[in-house]
Amino acid sequence: LYWDRYEELASKAEYLSPPRLRSIGVIRDAARVRPYAQILNESTCTLYLDDLDPEASHAEFVAYLLAMGERAAQTGEILRAAIHLAPWWFDRTGEETSAFTAATQRATRPDASLYRAIAAAIPWLREIRHRRLKPPRRAGGHREIPGTGLLVPRAHQQRPDGLIGQIQTAASDALRAFHQHHRHNTESARPLLELEEWLAGNRPPLLVVDSRGTTLWDPDRSTEQDALRQRLGPCGPEVLGQIRGDLECVAGHSRNFLASLLDQEILGTPDPEAQQDGYAFLHHKRGLLAYNLDEAGIERLLGPGIPYARAMLGARTLHEWAHLAVDAGCVPRTATEAGWASLRTDFTQKLTQTIEALPKAVRRTVAPDLQRLSYGTTAAEGLVDILERRLPDFQANLLAARYQSPIEREAYVRQNIRPLRREYPASDVLRMLVRYLYEFQYLGFSEIEDPRAYFFGMTWFASDYFDTGILDEAAFDQLSGAARALCRSYAVDDSRFVTPPLIPPAPT
């Protein structure tokens, strides 16, 4: 129901992207998962178990929840999603809207009041017009919602802002209730004391930092814990347990990786320009993995970890160490100079053919970027250079995958296979293509049965490249094969490592 309706709307209203393949995470216990948590980046839509109760809920409600989740993922926020989805109600029957409304009244999800507000707004949402879907009977008297073609009649011009306000209140209340539930339990200080004792005695090889990069705990001064104690003091036992589990994960993975090297001295210092954020990152001055208590989007101090966050933390820890090993020559290029040049030439020629066959409208759009890419070379060669600059990351993936548990590999892949539309302007669609061709190679580390179908479905690749005439599937296969050949020109040098590598256990 969701797919059919959303696909039809998107075919007529250009501001809506078509539905895409997404996993559905079903939350059994609302107290365990923060409302609106982004699970595995943009690859997952969340529902609550009661949403799927056939006695209390209804297919009309679930379909709309999925539509709201997709629109929120497309725009990065939920506040205006209900307004943007006004066309959803244009052709709904009285029976359909009644079923939806009744389901919202029975809903138990943390933000149920949000959907009750939408149900109450259906009568005036149906009276909104759209330039193509539902043109106004006469010109004038309407306020356009920017970027959508939606036209709000004069009689309802204050109502969209009112509904947005209700949605904001409902979402804020749901988040506040979740955070309140996980506030510090003052009955016992034992969990914090146990964490402090573990840090002092175990001295895990990592740093704990805050959002400003200030070190709160350092293994070289393992008993100096005042700064960390001040930050963790307000946290409840569940949060403290989560943090300790995270630190054990980083420490265990780090020790296992380093122990698998025949010579740890080969590892150099991190790149001083290396990104200093993420689930865990190599501290550019200390050369240890850093764990940021204030990591954006994760809220480590406010509640239980987001599902799969521990798996991502482990995957990222190993990926960071693998980068240092790559810099030390542990994942060398196996192709000869002549062989490498031949593979580069093949990829360049295929990209040249793609550029030459671009539809006229697309060529006009990308013309400025083609000129930039051609500076000192050809546009196709400039695009190949973009992929080549990403190859050290692929080398790190080759090595890290040997240590990651299956759930860590899957989490890493699914986190990274996502739509890139919001990251690139239309003029840079060829740069986006090369990045897609590179990231498509990540699926080689996954157990997804049909990587090609997963990739097309998850990213809107087909809409952006096949429907626009930039590529067809045969051309994609040729390009991705040429990119794959470049990636496969690297291999792990087993002589640098203990055999077999010390693979850590799967995270709990």
Architecture overview:
The protein is α/β, with parallel strands linked by helices. A four-stranded mixed beta sheet has the order 7-6-9-8. The chain is built from 19 helices and nine strands. The protein is flat, with a radius of gyration of 26 Å. Helix 9 runs parallel beside helix 10 (309-327) and helix 12 (360-373) crosses helix 13. The two termini are 36 Å apart. The longest helix is centred in the middle third of the chain and has 23 residues, at 159-181.
What's a concise summary of this model?
The protein is α/β, with parallel strands linked by helices and 508 residues long. It is built from 19 helices and 9 strands. α5 runs antiparallel to α6 (159-181).
Mean pLDDT: 93
Continuous helix count: 19
As residue ranges, the low-confidence spans are none
Element string (H = helix, E = strand):
HEEHHHHEEEHHEEHHEEHHHHHHHHHH
> Pairing-aware structural class of the strands and helices?
alpha/beta
Q: What would the principal axes of the Cα set say about the shape? A: flat
State the end-to-end distance.
Answer: 36 Å
The main sheet comes to: 4 strands, mixed
Strand order of the largest sheet: 7-6-9-8
Strand content: 5-15%
Q: Rg to the nearest angstrom?
A: 26 Å
Portion in helices: 40-55%
Strand tally is 9
Features:
49% helix, three-stranded antiparallel beta sheet, alpha/beta, four-stranded mixed beta sheet, 508 residues, flat, 19 helices
Produce the secondary structure layout.
Layout: H1 2-12, E1 23-27, E2 44-48, H2 59-75, H3 81-84, H4 94-106, H5 112-125, E3 129-130, E4 142-145, E5 150-153, H6 159-181, H7 190-202, E6 206-209, E7 215-217, H8 226-232, H9 237-259, E8 281-282, E9 289-292, H10 309-327, H11 337-356, H12 360-373, H13 379-389, H14 391-400, H15 406-416, H16 429-439, H17 451-459, H18 461-466, H19 473-487
Parallel strand pairs: 1-2, 6-9
Antiparallel strand pairs: 3-5, 4-5, 6-7, 8-9
